[in-house]
Amino acid sequence: MTAANPFHDPVRFERRVSGCALVIFGANGDLTKRKLVPALYRLAYERRLPAGFSIVGNSRTAMGDDEFREKMREATKSFLEDTPFDEDLWREFAAGLFYIAGDLKDPGCYAAIRTKLEELEQSRQTGGNALFYLSTQPSHYATAIGGLGAAGLAKGGNGQWRRIVVEKPFGHDLESARELEREIHKVFAEEQVYRIDHYLGKETVQNILAFRFGNGIFEPLWNRRYVNHVQITAAESIGVEGRGAYYQEAGALRDMIQNHLLQVMATVAMEPPAAFEAQGVRDERAKLLRSIRILKPEEVLANAVSGQYGEGRVGGQVLPGFRQEPGVSPNAQTDTYAAATFFVDNWRWAGVPFYIRSGKRLAKRVTDIAIQFNSAPHAVFSPQARDAAPWSEPNLLVLRVQPEEGISLRFLSKLPGSGMKLRPVTMDFKYGSSFGVRSPAAYETLLIDALTGDATLYTRQDMVEASWQAVHPIMSVWGNTKFDFPNYAAGSWGPKESDDMLARRGHTWRTP
Ligand code: BG6
Q1: Ligand 1 center to residue 172 CA distance, Å?
Q2: Which atom of ligand 1 is nearest to the CA of 402?
Q3: For ligand 1, which residues put their CB under 6 angstroms from it?
């Protein structure tokens, strides 16, 4: 076993979590209920957590341990998608759930957390190790970090570890991301910091690396000589789901493209690392993000499209427009849809457009990456050989991130019969049917990673800054542009301007 062999990394593959406690700031929030606690329960179900593993929730809401446990029980039952809810296991799990009400501005809150951690070290053998998870409103991050530092909680004594997970958004622009970084580093050393981007924890996003670097036949084609363009789509059918106030300020470019989709693009386009370990993988991702061409202000409107949904009809049901959603201003200029064309200025990708789009209330929920290859250089078959209109469509490789996880490759085939007729067919790999086991949710993977001290799938400050830099010109031009919103109907595939953006280069969006 050597560290250079990507398949024999003892930390990633054995993943033994030592005794520890997890402290969640923002424990009364949506993420804790929908994602974190259900993910932790599933890890307990799979016996991945150490005996005595403890969770300490904090928020301002007054409640006791029992009320917190009950809330988490209800949430876990309703958000566990594919794991049975086992009452006995829950009792065991809930015995390690605790709650401390307190204001992050109050030093007493950290003192109470400290006392609780000391108590758990004795009563539940947590070894004094702790992972802090920042899941509050982002405007409270700096306060919480300062509070942890002042209370001496950021440093463990005597071989104990302390780490911190920072939820997105990591700043709302380049400057605020740098400011947050300064606050973090006043208190935590870089190796203690885990900046989460849950897309990097998705099985299918990780599989991009396995597909590219575990096989010999794809990588030689993975460049400007063979790839015509790349389309990355993250479409959501849901609207803003009660997050109107947050989303109105954020918008799709900040909420999805700056972080999740640029990370996906980096995974698709990065150079091979020497080994599958944190620094190497992150160095390559960061290098790719830094190679994204920064648009000039006068190029923005031709290379980025902003959209906002209006009322629409889906399956006979009328859906309200964004401006009619609760918490949203009737004049909001928010982008609920964003699309952009990026170029990577390096030898591998020079001149290849990467089209990225994401939006709320689109026709269906789907995230995928489509690599479109160049057409065959010479037409051997006569036009009469075409059987169906799309026969001349070039080879297309689709990496499906969700919901039907898998990979498909489209190519032309001869139709059975005496004549020479061609038709596109698809070779399809489906995760579900090939492996027959459920894939862990992104938060399960990432929590285990942080608990074992593996930052491979976490982002780094240079990556965060490079991706803010890439979207910066778009944000600033959009900020000074008055859009004629709404410009797409709920339930559609987004604004027409997005199709026009691709058409200018002779391309069209696929309908996934
Ligand atoms: C979050 C965004 O980061 O990702 C949400 O804030 C979005 O607006 C969500 O809905 C999408 O995640 P997933 O895993 O459902 O694709």
Answers
A1: 16
A2: 16
A3: 168, 236, 255, 367
What's the N-to-C CA distance of the chain in angstroms?
Answer: 42
8, 260, 472, 507: which is the annotated catalytic residue? Answer: 260
Instruction: Find the 197 Cα to ligand 1 centroid distance in Å.
Output: 10
Q: pTM for the full model?
A: 0.93
Taking the C-alpha atoms of residue 410 and residue 396, their distance in angstroms, rounded to an integer, is: 5
**Residue identifier of the C-alpha nearest atom 9 of ligand 1:** 256
By CB atoms closer than 10 A (0-12, 13-18, 19+), residue 178 is middle
Ligand 1, atom 15: closest residue by C-alpha: 236
Bridge partners, residue 429, by sequence? 407
Residue type, 419: G
The conformation of residue 59, written as its DSSP 8-state character, comes to E
Whether 260 sits among the annotated catalytic residues: the reply is yes
Residue to substitute in 81, 166, 236 for testing ligand 1 pocket (most ligand atoms within 8 angstroms of CB)? 236
Residue bearing the CA closest to ligand 1, atom 2: 255
SS3 track for 338-373: EEEEECECCCCCCCCCEEEEEECCECCCEEEEEEEE
Residue 388 pLDDT: 57
Number of H helices, E strands in the chain: 17, 18
DSSP state of 492: B
Q: Which residues pair with 162 in a beta bridge?
A: 130
How far is ligand 1, taken at its centre, from the CA of residue 194, in Å?
19
Instruction: State the Cα–Cα distance between residues 15 and 452, nearest whole angstrom.
Output: 6
User: Which one-letter amino acid corresponds to residue 389?
Assistant: A
pLDDT, tens digit, 9 for 90 and up, residues 224-266: 999 999 999 999 999 988 788 889 999 999 999 999 999 999 9
Residue 348's contacts (CB-CB under 8 Å, 6 or more residues apart) are 222, 223, 224, 269, 271
Cα 232 to middle of ligand 1, angstroms: 15
- The partner residues of 334 in beta bridges, in order of sequence, read none
Residue 200 CA to ligand 1 center (angstroms) comes to 12
Contacts of 385 (CB under 8 A, 6+ apart): 391, 420, 421, 422
Among 205, 238, 256, the mutation site with the greatest number of ligand 1 atoms within 8 A of its Cβ is 256
Which pair of tokens denotes residue 76?
């876990």
Q: Where are the beta strands (DSSP E) in 403-467?
A: 406-414, 422-430
pLDDT at res. 500: 98
Pocket test for ligand 1, best of 196, 198, 257, 368 (most atoms within 8 A of CB): 198
Tokens 């080994």 correspond to: 275
Banded pLDDT at 187 (limits 50, 70, 90): very high
Q: Residue length, the chain?
A: 512
> Pick from 341, 398, 405: which is nearest to 373 by CA?
398
The answer to whether 400 touches 406, Cβ cutoff 8 Å, is yes
**Atom 13 in ligand 1: residue holding the nearest Cα:** 199
